[in-house]
């Protein structure tokens, strides 16, 4: 197995870039080529490559003609690459020494997988900080925010980027896998370490506008931010149209303070639920008597997410009181015990990796309040009354997951539930494990194994 490591360099910090190249050349797995695509305004990065890495024939450096898009540059790399695996690497990432070995082994052990990504952390003042422990491939989360980034590995395929894609061609590729998400694999290890981009780094880039007034500079930043946002929205729009999903896209105002050259813009995807009142035979609204929904059009919003062709259950954010979350969906451990996600967190907080604030694919919902596709409910045999309440919930959700359907948490709908009774008997748990033990023993796919289980979840100890 040979890797073609592709680095697209633009607005490059040369110190971080050199560290990136050093980490590539120091890999324990040696069968690779490194293709550097330089899209900086000048070719001084080539001087760095020639000065510090003059005699390594594994390195190919190309300075891309000014004005060419990111998509054009990557297509050039794909046409010349010789490897079996393409590894798209962020120009400011340091690779763990055994990263290529681990990725190669994962492809060997999972031959059906086409794309692999991993966890990463950040480097600030030479210290490793802020680990990003990611979920498995999460369609809903990815449509709003590129949580994977532009560092991942993919088997060689007959694939090209749009030559007009200026900013996020890698994001487009990641969304193309929504129709075959079972071919995406996540490695729950910190294989990459991203250099933290400080305000000073960003100001260095904007120094080319040093003759501008502060007001003119602000306008330039706004112009760049909104052009990046427009392309990100266009990429999501194409993916939604391909799947015949109706939605309105806008900027997520909760993240307006992060209008940065180096950050991915957050996208607000509002699904169209206008037909929910005509479709009352197609969905089942399950709600306990003690549960109250807040706000207008709550069921309409839940139905908007449920109307997607591969979604069969949607749950709201539920509160146990005005100051704390009851659950944002549920997670389960390898013994089939479920825990409410983000329990006790502040309702208006973002949560770890935006878990509370953004729509997510989840493994389980509460049967105290959720919207269920009626066809799925009937086809699956309905609720297994032999199980206790907590195990009934997990059983129904696992039947959906095992048949390739998705379950979605919708943060724009809030319900008050109070403390819920989700106790399980030993007999019920034994029956649950008999039905789904093989799946359960692999752990919750949407909950990273590096994070703590129990009521205090989605947090860093």
Keywords:
nine-stranded mixed β-sheet, 461 residues, alpha+beta
Explain how this protein is built.
By secondary structure, the chain is of the alpha+beta class. The protein has twelve helices and 20 strands. It has helices spanning 14-25, 44-52, 70-80, 99-109, 139-144, 169-176, 199-206, 214-242, 298-306, 374-379, 389-402, 426-440, and strands at residues 3-9, 32-38, 59-63, 85-89, 93-95, 115-124, 127-132, 152-155, 184-195, 247-251, 267-271, 283-287, 292-294, 311-321, 324-327, 330-332, 338-340, 360-361, 369-373, 406-416. The strands form four sheets. Strands 1, 2, 3, 4, 5, 6, 7, 8 and 9 form a nine-stranded mixed β-sheet that branches. Strands 12, 13, 14, 15, 18, 19 and 20 form a seven-stranded mixed β-sheet that branches. β2 (32-38), α2 (44-52) and β3 (59-63) form a beta-alpha-beta unit. α6 packs parallel to α8. The longest helix has 29 residues, at 214-242. It is globular. The mean pLDDT is 89.
Please give a quick description of this structure.
This protein has helices at 14-25, 44-52, 70-80, 99-109, 139-144, 169-176, 199-206, 214-242, 298-306, 374-379, 389-402, 426-440, and strands at 3-9, 32-38, 59-63, 85-89, 93-95, 115-124, 127-132, 152-155, 184-195, 247-251, 267-271, 283-287, 292-294, 311-321, 324-327, 330-332, 338-340, 360-361, 369-373, 406-416. The chain has 461 residues and is α+β, with helices and mostly antiparallel strands. Helix 11 (389-402) packs parallel to helix 12 (426-440).
Rg result? 23 Å
Whole-number mean pLDDT: 89
Helix content: 25-40%
Count the DSSP helices: 12
Low-confidence stretches: none
């Amino acid at each position: 197995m040979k890797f073609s490591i592709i680095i697209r360099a633009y607005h490059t910090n040369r110190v971080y870039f050199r560290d990136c190249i050093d980490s590539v050349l120091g890999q324990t797995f040696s069968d690779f080529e490194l293709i550097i695509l330089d899209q900086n305004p000048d070719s001084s990065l080539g001087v760095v490559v020639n000065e510090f890495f003059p005699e390594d024939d594994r390195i190919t450096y190309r300075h891309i003609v000014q004005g060419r898009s990111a998509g054009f540059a990557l297509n050039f790399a794909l046409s010349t690459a010789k490897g079996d695996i393409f590894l798209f690497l962020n120009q400011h990432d340091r690779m763990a020494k055994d990263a290529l070995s681990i990725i190669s082994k994962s492809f060997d052990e999972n031959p059906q997988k086409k794309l692999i990504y991993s966890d990463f952390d950040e480097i600030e003042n030479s210290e490793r900080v802020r680990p990003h422990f990611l979920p498995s491939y999460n369609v809903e989360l990815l449509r709003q925010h590129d949580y994977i980034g532009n560092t991942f590995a993919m088997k060689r395929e007959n694939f090209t980027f749009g030559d007009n894609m200026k900013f996020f061609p890698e994001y487009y590729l990641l969304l193309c896998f929504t129709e075959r998400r079972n071919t995406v694999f996540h490695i729950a290890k910190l294989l990459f370490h991203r250099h933290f981009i400080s305000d000073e780094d960003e100001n260095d880039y904007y120094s080319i506008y040093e003759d501008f007034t502060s007001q003119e500079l602000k306008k330039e930043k706004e112009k760049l931010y909104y052009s990046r946002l427009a392309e990100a929205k266009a990429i999501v729009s194409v993916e939604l149209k391909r799947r015949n999903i109706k939605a309105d896209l806008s900027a997520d105002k909760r993240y307006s303070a992060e209008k940065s050259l180096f950050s991915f813009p957050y996208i607000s995807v509002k699904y169209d639920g206008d037909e929910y009142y005509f479709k009352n035979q197609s969905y089942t609204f399950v709600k306990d008597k003690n549960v109250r929904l807040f706000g207008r059009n709550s069921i309409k919003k839940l139905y908007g997410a449920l109307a997607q062709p591969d979604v069969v259950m949607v749950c709201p954010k539920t509160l146990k009181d005005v100051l704390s979350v009851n659950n944002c969906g549920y997670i389960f451990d390898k013994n089939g015990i479920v825990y409410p996600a983000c329990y006790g967190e502040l309702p208006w907080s973002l949560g770890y990796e935006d878990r509370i604030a953004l729509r997510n694919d989840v493994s389980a919902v509460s049967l105290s309040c959720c919207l269920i596709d009626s066809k799925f409910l009937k086809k699956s045999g309905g609720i297994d009354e032999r199980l206790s309440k907590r195990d009934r919930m997990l059983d129904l959700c696992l039947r959906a997951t095992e048949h390739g359907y998705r379950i979605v948490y919708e943060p724009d709908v809030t319900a008050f539930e109070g403390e819920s009774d989700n106790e399980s008997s030993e007999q019920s748990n034994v029956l649950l494990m008999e039905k789904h033990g093989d799946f359960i023993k692999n752990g919750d796919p949407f909950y990273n194994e590096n994070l703590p289980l129990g009521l205090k979840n989605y947090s860093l100890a």
